[in-house]
Amino acid sequence: MTRTLTSKPLLPPVPAALTAMLSIQAGAAVAKGLFATIGALGTTSLRLALAALILGAIHQKALRSLDVQGWKAILPYGLVLGMMNLTFYQSVQHLPLGLAVTIEFIGPLGVAVFSSRKPMDYLWAVLAGLGILLISPWAPGSRVSLIGIFWAVLAGVFWGLYIVMGQRVLRQVSSRQAVAGGMLIACLLPLPLGLFTTGAKLFEPSILLFGLMVAVLSSALPYSLEMVALKALPARTFGILMSVEPAIAAVLGLLLLQEHLTPLQWVAVVCVIGASIGSTLGSRDTSHAEVLN
């Protein structure tokens, strides 16, 4: 997804990328704190709706210039974006944050493996699969929710589709149109479900305040920071940096949510990170537009 770029970035590219990941996972941790009050569906709908308002205001000129064909191009991308967020928050409701993000990484890894099909890529896929097995309920000492794993795998599938759809939509509309229009469409399914399950509680001032915090941390701020990084770094370098996101999620889950992983689960996180880095190093250095999502 594309990000807003300022003429004088506040951070150098590498710190900007790392701060973006910290922001996204901190936003997920804050979102998880809302689950007890408005549930995963209510949190998803609130986050997407507020993010759509923020990004729509930032990119209002780009949105006004969209024609019918542009909206048709953005529609599948936005729907996949909404489902990716919906299924991810469902997984976080049942799993520690670090494990949910680790399992979800099968999405971009799957896209990398199937788009490349180099023999070495299948080794990275096996390494990632080993990591997922170490998280499974059948691993020694594991008490992981099977339904949580199901939602995380589904979120990973939607993440993979999101990457493919993102590459496709950027060939037809501008990046600003894609990010703002996609977020508006992403609200179509979660928002009615959130309103139905949560009702008026969704509009309580304290809930709206935390929802706004989630929207800023998970959308507006990281999108801007990642654009700074993407403009200055080779795509392969950016991909390697993003590979450490499961570890960041696990550490923030420990610090902010007191979610303790078992030693085997930490090994699983390392396996998936290693597979992601290996796959990135073995890929061609794609253009920035191809990794924006």
UniProtKB/TrEMBL annotation:
The keyword ATP-binding does not apply. Keywords: Cell membrane, Membrane, Transmembrane, Transmembrane helix. The chain crosses the membrane at residues 38-58, 70-89, 95-115, 122-139, 145-165, 177-195, 207-225, 237-257, 263-282. It is a multi-pass membrane protein. Its main location: membrane. InterPro entries: AA-Vitamin_Transporters, EamA_dom, EmrE-like. Residues 147-278 form the EamA domain. The keyword Cell membrane applies. It is found in: Cell membrane. It comes from the Bacteria. This is Threonine transporter RhtB.
